[in-house]
Each structure stands twice: as C-alpha cells, then as structure tokens.
Here is the input.
Amino acid sequence: MGEDAVKSRFHTLAISAVRPAKHLSPSPSFQRCAFTSWIKENINKRECCFFEKGVREDVCKCGYLKTDHVDEAIKPEDFTGESWDKHRHAYEVPTDAFGDISFGGLGQKTGQYARVSTDTSPENLYQLLTEQWKLPPPNLLISVTGGAKNFYLKARLKNMFRRGLIKVAQTTGAWIITGGTHTGVMKHVGQAVRDHTLSNATQGPIVAIGVATWGIIHNRDALVHSEGCFPAHYEMDIKGQGRLSCLDNNHTHFLLVDDGTHGNYGVEIELRSRLEKCISRKRLGNKEGGMTIPVVCVVLDGGPGTLNVSHQFSVPRCLSLCLTVLCVSSQTIYNAMLNSTPCVIMEGSGRIADVIAQVAGLPVTRVTIALIHQLMKKFFGKEYDNFPHLKIIEWTKKIQDIIRMSHWLTIFRISEDNHGDLDVAILQALLKASRTSETLGIESWKRQLELAITWNRVDIAETEIFTEESQWKSGDLHWAMFSALVGNKPQFVSLLLENGVSVRDFLQDEETLCELYKQLPSCIFLRKLAKRVHSSSHSRGKAFRIRRRAHLGQGEMISMTHVSDEVRHLLGSFTHALYPPSIMTYRLNLSASISLSKSPTGSREPLGEDSADAQRDPGRDLFLWAVVQNNKELAEIAWELCRDCMSAALAASKILKTMAEEGSDADEAEDMHELANHYEKHAIGVFSECHNSDEERARRLLVRVSPVWGRTTCLRLALEADDKSFVAQSGVQALLTQIWCGELSVDNPVWRVLVCMVFFPLIYTRFLVFRRDEIIHREAEKKEEIKTVETVTGSTLRTNSCSLDRFGLKRLKPLSSWYRLFHLYSSPQVKFYWNIVSYFAFLFLFAVVLMIDFQAAPSAGELLLYIWLLSLVCEEVRQLFYDPDGFGFHKKAAMYINELWNILDVLSILLFIVGLAFRLTTELFYAGKILLCVDFVVFCLRFMAIFTISRTLGPKIIIVRRMMTDMFFFMFLLSIWVVAYGVAKQGILIHNDDRLDWIVRGAIYEPYLIIFGNFPTNIDYAAFDLDSCSMNGTDPLKPKCPVLNENQTPAFPEWLTIIMLCVYLLFANILLLNLLIAIFNFTFQTVQDNTDIIWKFQRYELIKEYHSRPAAPPPFIIFSHFYLFIRNMVLCRPPIISQEFKSELPQMEEEELLSWEALMKDRYLLSTQQEQSQSMERRILDTAQKVSTITDRLEREEEASSAAVVQRLTRLEEQVVQSAKALQWIVDSLKCRGFAAKEAQPQTLTTTDESPDPLTNTSEKEDGLHVKARQFHYPNSKLTRFPVPEEKVPWEVSFSSYEPAYYASEDSGNHVDGSESEAVNNYRNPGGRTGIRGRGALSHLGPNRSADLVLTRMRESEWSVLEYLVVWDESHGTLALPGGPLQSADELPVTLKRTLGKTLYEMINAKVSEGTKVFEGYVDDCRNTDNAWVELTILNIHLDRTSELMVDVNSMVASSHGALQWRELSGKTRLSGNQRDSLRQVAELHNRKF
Here is the structure.
C-alpha cells in the first residue's frame, strides 16, 4: 500500500471514528434494484435473428425451434440469400437470466448466476464477480477442465485429489473455475466442495465458479426472467437430461455463456480463457506492484486431446500452474508448458497422465515411437485401435518435448511420500518452476517467499525456500516480516525469526513501527487511535498553523506520539510516555521565526537521544502492537522476544482489561479478558520460576523501575490491572510482609513486638531480631562453612565476592542503638499497633463524652476529642494528596473514594463536623448530640478495618461485604411483600387514618416485625381491646380503632385477615428468609475459594498506607503533619521517595537482572511445553497421527509392490517378444546365406517404422540434435511442422511417413517459382530433419550466416569484473548482443552501422582481425528448415581501458540514452538462450565464472 493510500485511509478512519455515520447501509431491495440495473447495462445475451431450416423443418441451424425465434427472425429482409452464420446472425440483447439460484433437495444449496454473451468483456465479468457478487480477489486461480462424461476414479486417488484440491484452495484463498455441470470432472470438484462445506461449517466457503455453455443446460427455462430471479428454483433432472447437462448444485457461482446456439458444447472455452487471462493480469492483493495472480489449471480424465488443443494464452511475469490428472481439455499440457506453465501429473490417474508418468524419468532418446505405441495400447485399451500411426508419431514428439522441459514438469506419484499431499506437490511445482528462471538469486527467492506468504503456507516455505541453497540476510527479509505481521500470519513470523530476521534491525526505523500501526485491523484500539488523531488535529496551537497549512490535503496522519498517548491512557497516568516525542516533532522549519528558543532544544537533544535509545526495546514494540489488536498468536511470539517479560505480561493484562471496559462489543471484551488472564498466568509462571531460583532477585524484579514500560514497576502494574492471582503469590506476599515488618525480622512473634513497643530497652538485647542482624548472621555462617570446607579439603573455594560487594552485603554493620529505636517505631507493623491502641482510646473518650461528659460548655475531655479528630482529618488530607506513584489528583481522588474504609472516614468526619456545629448552638444542642451518637456508630464500623491485616478475619470481612450487597438487593424483593401486606391490612382494619406516623407504623413497621415473630393482636376478635386504641385517632399515643359494629366489636372479616397473615408468613418468613439464607450460602461458597486471594490483594493498600504514615499515632500525629506542611509547602523541598515499593537499579545490575529473568522465562516456557506435550489430549492426537501415517505407508507400499510385479511381468513379456524376433531373424538369415543376412541385420532393426526396437539409438546424445528447429509452430506463420521424434532426426534413419510442408515467407499462398523449388533438393540441414521444407523465414536456401559481436572490457572500479556491450531491442523489448547477417567473414555485419554509428563501426571493423572467434558453426534456430539454416560466428573483441577506441565506445554509450549499455558478464544475464551460450563461452575464454 502506497503512502498516499495509507494517508487517505487514516484520514477516512479518523473522520468516521469520531463523527456519526450519515449514510446507513442500503436495504436488500435497493441493492437488488442496483444489481439489476448494473446487469442490464453491462451484461448481454445472444439471440438468433435469422431462421434457416436445419436438419428438421421446425429447427433452425442455431439449434433452437422455430417457435423460440422472434417474428422478425423468421422472415428477415436484411439477410435474404445468405447462409446462417453465428457471428453475423446472432446479435446481443440485454440478458434475461440472472440472480440467485436455489437447488432443491437436502441442504437447500444456493448460488448466483448470470447468462452472458461470448463477447462479454472479461473486465465486466471480473467486476461482476468481485463488486456485484462481493467475492474477495483470489490469491490463486484453479481452473479445472476435463472429461464431460462420468468416469471412475480409485477411492484413494479420488480422496487425495479432493483433499489436495480443496486444501490448496482453502489455504491460499483461491477461486476454482470449472465447467459447472453435474458430470465428469465438474461433478468430482463439486463433491469435494460439498464435503468441505459439510465438515468445516465454521470456516469460509470455497468459491467454485462454473463457466458453462447456456445452450446445453437442461431445465434452463427456470432461470429466465426479465427482471432477474431472486431466487430461481432449479431442478436437477439427471435421468431426463438426455444429451444436455444439469448444473452442479455444489458450485457457488455460475457464468452461463451464450453464443445464440443450442446443443453445442465448448462455447464457453474462448470466454473462459479470456477471463482467466484477465484474472492472471491482476496483482496479488490489489497491490500496485508485485506479482500477478497465479493461475492453476487442473485437467482430469486425459485423452489424446490433452496434447492437441492449444492453450489460449501465456501469463507473462506470472507463474501459472497446470495440474494434469486425467482428461480431454481445452488447456493442454504441451502448450501450457510452452507458455512457461509448470505442470503436475498425477501418476495412476489413467491414460495420457500415466503415459507421461511412465516416460518422465527416461532420457528423451529412450522415448521412441515403439515405446509410445506400447504405452498407448496399455493405458488406452480398445481406444488404441482407433489411433492412426501418424497421430502416434505426433504424440511421441509432443511427449518428448514435455519431458524435455523437466523444470516445468512434476510427477506426483501416490506410491511415494516425498511430495506429501497433492496440495504440497502443486505448490512445490510452482516454486520449482520459479527457480528455473534465468535471473537466479535473491529476487527469485523473494518471489517464491511472497507467494508462500500470500498463501500462508509455512510448510512450503520451510521445506522449499529456507534451504541451504538460499542465503538470506536479515535486511532481505524485512519486507516479508512486514507482510507476515500485517497479514496476521504468526507461523511465518516465527519462521522468519528462526531464519535470521533481527527484530531490532526491523524496527530500527520508527517509520516501520508507525506503518504497522497504520495497517492495524479493525479493532477498539484503532478506533480510539483514529479518534485521538482527529481530535489532536483540531486542538493544535497557533504556532503550528503554518505547518498545518503546509500539510493540507495529506490527511490526518498518525504518529508514534498519538500511539504513546493512547497507550499511556490504557496503562494509566502514573506511567511515563513509552515513545517520547522526538526533537524533530517540535522543531519547525521557520527561518523567519525566532520566537522559539533554540537553547532548550539543544540542551535536551543528547539526553533525548540517549534516553530514546535506552528505552527502545523492539520486542516491547512488537508485543505492544500485537496486544492492542488482541492478537494472541502474534503477541505470544513477540512476548518471547521481550527483555522485561514479566512487566510486559502485566502491562498487557492492564491494557486489555482497560480496552475491554471501554469497548462496546461484549464478545470482543470477553476475548480481551481471556487474553489478559493468559498473560497474567505468564507473569505468574515467570515469577514463580524466579522466586524458586532466587528469592532476593525475584523481589527486586517486583519493585524495580522498568524504563521500557513507562518507568513503573511490576507490582504497580499488577495492582492496576487487578491481577489478584499474581499479587497473591507467596513471593509477592513475602515482599509485602517484609515491607510490613520494616527493618524488623519477619520471624518475630507478634507478642514480642507488642512487648517491645512498651518496653523498648528490650530491643538492645536479642529479644527482638532485626533484619540486618539476620543478614549478618547468614553471611557469617556462610564464611564459617567455607572455612570448614577449605580446612577439610585443603583447597580454596571461589565465592561470588563481586556480587556481594556490589550489593553491599560485605560492608553491612550492626545497627546502632539510635537506629534500632528508630526502625522499631518506624516499622509499619508497629505503627499499625499504635494506631489500634490510639483508636481504642479515641472511641473510649468519645463514648465517655457522649454518655457522661456532654455539657453545654465543652469540657476538657471534649476539647481533647476535637483535637484528636483534627489529627484524623489532617491524616485523611495527607493520604489524599500523598502521591508517590504520580497518579495525579483526579486518579488519586478516584482511588480514595473507591475504598470503603475511606468512605466511612469521610462520612464519620462530616457527621462529626455537622454534629459539632449543631452542638455549639442552643437550639440544636440535642440534635447535635444525636448526630454525634450516630457518628459514634460509624466510627465503630470503621474499626473493622483493623481486621483486614488478619489472615483469619480479613477474608471474612470480604465475605460480609459481599453478603451486604446481596442483602441490599434482597431488600427490594422483601419490600414488595411487606408493603403489599401492610397496606392491605391497614386498609382493611383502619378507616381514614390521617396520622402519617401511625400509617407508616401500621403499613410498614408492624409487617416488618412480623417476620421476626412479633405477631399482631388487632387482626383477631379474641385479642381485641377497646382501651388499647383511640376511636377517632385523637390520642397521639394510641392507634386508631378499627371499624366497629353496633355491639362495639370489630367489623372487619376475621377470616380474611388471618388468611392474609398466614400467606404473608408463608412467603416472607419461610420462602424469602430461606432464599436469603441460600443466597448467603451461595455467596459464601463462591467467595470462600477466592477470599484468600482477594484478601492478599487488598492487604497491599493497608501495608502501603501504614508504610507512608507518620510514626506517631493520633493525636500526636498532628505534629508530624505540621512538620510535613512546613517542609513541603513552606520550604518547598521534594518529598522523600521510599525505595521499598519503587527502586531504580544501576544499569549493570539492571542488565544482569533482566538476563537472569530471560533465563527464567526460557525455563518457564520449556516446562509449559513439556506439560502440553505430556497432556492426554496431545498424546491422543500424536497417536492418531502416527496411526494414520502408518496406514498410509502400508497402503503405499502395497500399491508399490503390486505395481513392481506388473512392471516386471511387462518387461519379461517385452524380452520374450524381442527374443522371438531375434530368433526369427537368425532363421531367415541362415536361409538366405548368412553373409547377406549379416548386412541386412542393422537395416532390419533401424529402418522399420512400424515396429522399431524401443531400445535402439539409446547411445545417441540428446545434445547433438536440434530442438528449436523442430517446434510445432513455425514463427510468424500459421504453419505447423511435421512432427519429427527424436529418433527420426538424423537423415541416415529411414522415415517413410515423413511428408513435410513447403514454406517460403515471401511466396504468397505457398507458391514458389521453379528455380527455387528445384534448388531445394541441393541443400540438406546438417542438423537433421526439421519438419518443414523450403527456406522458411530465412533469406535464402542453405546456410544463412550471421555474427554476434561481444565487446568486453574490465570495469573501472573493479578490475576483476568483466563487462560486455548490449543493445536494447525496441521491437522485442529485450536486451541483445549487437549483430546481424554476415556478408563477409572478414567484416562485421553491415547492420551494425545503424547501431554503432559509421565511425565507430569502421574503427571496430578494423580490429576484427585482432578479435577471437569463440564459436563458428550450425545454430539450433526456430527459423531453420530442412533446406535453410542459420550458421553463427561469435566474435569477441576485448577493449583496453586506455585505448582511443574505448573512449569512443564509452562516449557512444553515454549518448545513446540507454540504447547501448555495459553489463556485467554473469549468469544473471537476461538474454536469449543462444546468446547466453555465447557469453558462457566468452567467460570461459577470459577465465571468468559464469
């Protein structure tokens, strides 16, 4: 894709991503109308316009009945007296058969069809297929032709053909083109497509296009409708089709070719050939440059016609492939190979295929007429009796030419396993043909690799391309790497990496990475990136307006700055930019502008470059590119290349989860969550290996700053990604425990720490152990062990003293008294315990004030409570603004609010402030106390936070929180029953009570109490007491009495209220409460397994909170707050950053740690692979594959053994026949006096045309016989040579059937004057028979002498390089040696005067005598005849660099504008075959390698 195309695409992407779509997709009816309109404008059919009686009175010569013709055609005035001609009497009209076709029967298969004229433009047909029928352009075209009659194929052969054909079509994204009818080869292809569709319903369908003749389709009337059929119901009537054919119901598309006739087969051949030629000229992937679409020709059921009918086109610059399996076809093996089309012949498929397969391994001289006679008789059976002898001779010649072009021919033998499946053989043949190109080298390998990547056949690339013959450099494969990445071909990416591609070199240029992001497939990240690009283009400052105008019209371009901003958004604002903006991004090329200072840029430039180089990790870049598109396979490959693999896995988990939350597609979000969990498992696996190997290094990995991932840590990434399983690992928890204990040992019992908190002098004894003491003790023990070993063994042990010195372990000294006291009280563990004591004291003081000492004027205790609360408020403010990770205030505030305990803190403080405000006023004094009492409840609930550190109670708090959520939603369900029963009961018992408090009591409160066993007494007559209620509701302390009867008893229906109560108790007490218990039980069972993980994850926040908390507990903590305020706000000193959660390592230590991590990653991947290989599923698959391989090999060996027996019997029979002939000759010779018989013996064996010995002439050298002079088609004419097989070339060999035609190019109608025809017999071609008489296209009979001039020189810069002079031939568009017809042996051809100029010609002509004749003699030329031939003289003149002639030649070359060129003499030369041979001889003359 070109640069402009990329820009245009992203401009469109950005606009469409951020703006609502203005156009909706058209409706099906509108699409159908548009399709119908297009068809009528571009596609026609043919109709007969002149009725002429044929065989019957009512049948026209076009084949249609008289009633099928229009009235104007029956009595035409325009064609009176003419004979019927389909080219003149069939005219085009808009087609009336198109639309959708539906086949009856099982499956209800559907397709699309169109009736087209034979003169339809192939471009219109290609447009119909791709634009109207929405078929994606093919990467390969498989053209299947062959027998129209049903034929038998062996089961195994049929399976291999079907499997191979469908596999190559499926893997390469190919189109299959056949005849489209339900007979012969088309039926086999249709069944193969059907089997694939049934067995692979989830994969994309195979495109099978049937190009059939309209006039031979049975039941075609069902397809006709002037406005199209949507669908047309087509019935396959096989029994009643007669000599017509039914369409095959397994094809997907049909092109029905119409020439205006009925019943004539083969009408579609010409249009089909033109369509295939049109497709073969299209570029792969619709690219502007590169290779064209290869054409694959498949032929089945091959009779002799497979050798006769000519292939209609050649495919220049495109490798087409012909698979010949059996049958009569319009595209033949012979002509396909002449057009540089490689062929694969399947042995065992029958007839011509088997004949060629039998002789393919023999020398051409062994393939004799007699041998072809025998093979034809063997493989054709009764058909052989109808073959004339001249046809056998012609086929022999063609078969010899076929096997001579061995580089285009591949024999697929099912008895051998060297090819594998048929699809592999097809692709191998194509690559084999491409390697025979004259331009061998890296370009040839590149073309092969491009095809393999396009087809996604990594197996072919691995076995055929990346071999010892091909020498690849990393830079040579960068384009392939880009194609594999963009095309989502992970197997190719792995293969390229294995074969030397360096990711660092590949991504060294930032533009490559930028291009990869431009080629992203449609995904969430691409839409977000396009939106960011669009928004950034509208938000640029005024300083950039000139630049915007300079780039106007180029579209909104993506840059790595946009990618960096979007990735930082996904990772979190606490990270730094992964791709810092380059200096050039902000350096405007404004010579007149001096507003931008240059000094800051200049000062930052070295730092920016160094940091960019240090932070560039190509593995990280590739991994990030794969992750943002949710591509698991590519991401897996790239992750193995990452240096900081654990950070990469955790960052991927964070990015994927963020994209899943922001995306709208539920399925895509699920896939992202799945991939995020996959990389969390990778991070867990690597860290487990690290922790098992070295705990100290593993802990450093957790808290080290990662420069390539935004200067954050693994622990921070895991927390932000909510990777609970990773944080819950024992190694991570050990680190948290170590941080929790501070400088105290983690092995200290809690009771000892509590005792030392009060009696701190105990720390100076060994009552409490410090971490420094443990390290010193361990090092001392190690030294003692080493000394002991040295004493026992008498040798000196090598220790890793360097690493000990590096980490400062040797220089550690015991802690001083002051530092012991400081580390004790600064330990987060001790801070936590002091805060618990402080909180107990605060609650106790709060309770005393509320219950005992709550006076109108605040007492001393109450004032202390206010000061205490002020210290708590200051601590909450400090926690809110304390941001060591760089989240930013908004992120930090969001994190603060999302924590439940912080919400309780804020709520308790706000209630206290409001209660205090009320308490200080006289009017709201009591209300203030009530608020403070409620606030006390909140403070008590907040006290539960202390249990989160407990391993026993911490998980239970999580369960309680989950149950509270369940109960909250359960209350909605319960409230329905409470309100329903309460309102109904209140309405039945009480009449018009207007007191709101008593209404709520009766309708809600009392029904709620019933659930807990407080049964009402006012619903039963027996428990009614008139004194307990108020008649009119005037007593505010009594409820209103129910409606009474005259006898002062309740009037409500007692039976109804009791039933209602029973139903309410049944549902509320029994059903709903048990449902709540079940919900709690389910929640408990569900959460119980994960509570430990959740608790370990949440434990981090508590540890971090107390790690950053001042040492003094409230209310003394307020002094620490004053100190921090003065230090940070007044003195503006930078905050003290702790190294416990985030440490930056020196570069050497960083490199060593990452190398060790990479080693652990390799161990983890190896163990993972071993687990997968040992899994039960993998073992079953391996066993099944081995069994199928053994079965195939046994079948292959069985067939090979039977074939070997048959071959041996055939050879024995031939030997018996030859022995009988020899004995008969001996007898005849004895009868005729032995001497005469001895003379006649060779004559008998060599002159018999009808039955020559197939083993004769085997010693004849193939190189001694001309080949080009025996080509069937004589150049620049329509004449065909008489076939001359190899054995009949010499004039000495009798050839009684030889009757060549006479041809002279200047004689019209092959007429010659008497003098030349008489002189013909005086000349005989020294190379033997050619199959044509006369002088042909040559100027005269006999030898036609010509000369090629090879001017050579040594290259100026390199003395070892030999160069030669070539001429650009405009007529053929190729390079050629200067030369022409030779008039005299001592002079150059006169035609060179026009090429070299008169002066230069004369100067070179004067040096002819100094030149060297490299060759002189007969040349195998396609113009040669029996009586005229070409003799060539090759003259080499080597020029000295210092000579005057050399100067003139160079000036002539310089002024020729490319007509004359100096080229290096090497095997890469692109010249004709004869001239390449000439150059080879010149190279040998100068001792140069060709």
Observations:
- The radius of gyration is 48 Å.
- The CA atoms of residues 246 and 1076 lie 69 Å apart.
- DSSP finds 54 helices and 22 strands in the chain.
- The first strand starts at residue 44 and ends at 48.
